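Is this the right way to post structure tokens for a design question? Let me know if I should format differently. Anyway, here goes:
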């Protein structure tokens, strides 16, 4: 049995490593970050009952996941720019899309793997084919590794993807800017009241603010602006006060409890330009290598990205376990299911993203989705 070489210790790569471990198959994960604590791991994730949760069950970690759930986190509110509440749905406790912190979820995956599975501080500088399904991975500093089973779980700007595809992520015309308000119930009560107990969507044509309540009263927010990439590049994020004023200026006339999610941030604003791979991205079978997660199907944010990555990891792990002595049969079976699954998710993501960020009648389209068709 060839030992899988996984590039990237995100949720997808770690789920793959864990499912392989459950089936008695060792794997090695190479990660560019120096340690698990090298950077913050993002905010809340809603883990869906049709993909993310089954992946955690396949990994044997569902109970540990359940202990991480933020009770009440599935509550959803839609506001207009004046702060008027248009939709307010409490968490019903059904746990169809329960919320957990990404960093905590990643940690239970890391803790479930044998010591030494993840090799930290291994930034990939290049990958090349050696023929016969073998590939060489080169790391910054000069080290290399040769493998007959290479999995790119290395995100949007994957170094493994060029072995399979010429596709590169493209800017979709929308940029987010990330902020945090800490201890909000005490220090930022108006914003805390506006957000409520779960997720907030306040949108208007061409712009919006979304936020989520995290544990400890933290509000994690994103502004959403339809702007050329050049506009975002022209904002001086090295000066937080200047950047904050520039972003807040785009929300003149909005309710102060909403603009407070920008102006009252306890952290420096961080730009997050949104990119996507082409719709229907796929590749021909190349011996010894495949992709999962954003490396395979980067799409506009819709709440599916982490779920799909974990599901990809679980399905690839099961395929390898089913064909332990036939790598090509495993990868072919995995990709046969991956491509239609990704295409369907991409269509849904684009539809949801359009309602949040590209709707000339916002927030009417998003409101209709929630009230007429339920959450998606």
């Amino acid at each position: 049995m060839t030992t899988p070489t996984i590039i990237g210790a995100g949720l997808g790569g770690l789920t793959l490593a864990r499912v392989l471990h459950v089936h008695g198959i060792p794997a090695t994960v190479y990660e560019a970050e120096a340690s698990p604590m090298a950077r913050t791991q993002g905010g809340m994730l809603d883990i869906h009952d049709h993909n993310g949760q089954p992946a955690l069950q396949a990994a044997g970690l569902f109970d540990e996941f359940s202990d991480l759930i933020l009770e009440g986190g599935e509550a959803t509110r839609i506001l207009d720019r004046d702060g008027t509440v248009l939709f307010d749905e409490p968490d019903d406790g059904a746990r169809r899309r329960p919320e957990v912190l990404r960093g905590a979820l990643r940690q239970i995956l890391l803790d479930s793997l044998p010591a030494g599975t993840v090799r930290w501080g291994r930034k990939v500088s290049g990958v090349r084919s050696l023929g016969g399904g073998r590939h060489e991975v080169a790391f910054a500093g000069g080290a290399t590794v040769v493998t007959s089973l290479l999995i790119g779980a290395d995100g949007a700007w994957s170094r493994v993807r060029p072995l399979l595809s010429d596709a590169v992520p493209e800017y979709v015309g929308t940029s987010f800017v990330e902020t945090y308000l800490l201890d909000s119930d005490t220090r930022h009560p108006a914003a805390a009241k506006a957000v409520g107990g779960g997720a907030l969507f306040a949108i208007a044509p061409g712009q919006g603010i979304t936020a989520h309540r995290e544990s400890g009263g933290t509000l994690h927010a994103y502004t959403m602006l339809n702007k050329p990439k050049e506009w975002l590049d022209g904002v001086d994020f090295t000066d937080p006060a200047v950047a904050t004023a520039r972003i807040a200026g785009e929300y003149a006339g909005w309710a102060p409890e909403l603009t407070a999610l920008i102006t009252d941030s306890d952290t420096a604003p961080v730009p997050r330009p949104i990119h996507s791979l082409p719709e229907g991205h796929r590749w021909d079978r190349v011996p010894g290598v495949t992709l999962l997660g954003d490396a395979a199907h980067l799409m506009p944010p819709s709440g599916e990205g982490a779920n799909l990555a974990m599901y990809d990891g679980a399905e690839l792990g099961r395929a390898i376990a089913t064909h332990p002595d036939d790598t090509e049969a495993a990868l072919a079976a995995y990709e046969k299911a991956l491509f239609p699954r990704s295409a369907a998710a991409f269509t849904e993501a684009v539809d949801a993203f359009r309602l949040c960020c590209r709707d000339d009648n916002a927030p009417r389209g998003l409101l209709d989705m929630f009230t007429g068709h339920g959450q998606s």
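Format looks fine. Someone answered above. Worth noting: The mean pLDDT is 93. The CA atoms of residues 147 and 365 lie 49 Å apart.
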